[in-house]
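Question:
Now give any protein.
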Amino acid sequence: MQRLGLRVLYPGLPDHPHHARLAAAANPGYGSGGMLCIDMGTEDRANRLMHHLQNTTQFGLMAVSLGYYETLMSCSGSSTSSEMPPEDRARAGISPGLVRMSVGYNGTLEQRWAQLERALALMQPPLPSPTAAAAATALLHHKAAADRDVPDGGNSNHRKH
């Protein structure tokens, strides 16, 4: 995702400000947790990404609470953190386009990754940088493979439970 020019916040990444603290305290066998943030830049782009993740690829569900066994996602700036003054949100790193995800334990890692890549590739207009646009185009070429990993080819507009 960083290769697409997106800001990614995840404590398991070496460039996260608290990565060293996590590495020192966490059990290495448990990974770095299931919370992930992607900064889409604007609230509109964040909402479009979440729409594709929920309705096109069945990656997860939009929600304001992120505690559930399925993958849930939220645009924090316009939901859970909307009561904060803008300067406090900025100081906390909560941009208008920040999408927080709590990755659930349903589906395989490969399925989740393919669904996320497909939703990112569907974003219009293309991602901001020429490198990101080229990467998104390359992801579209892998769409057929991703469709095989999604029940009914990802054409359903509702979740199957």
In short: The two ends are 28 Å apart (CA to CA). Helices lie at 19-25, 43-56, 86-91, 109-121, 130-141, 143-149. The beta strands are 7-9, 35-39, 61-62, 72-75, 98-102. The chain is about 35% helix and 10% strand.
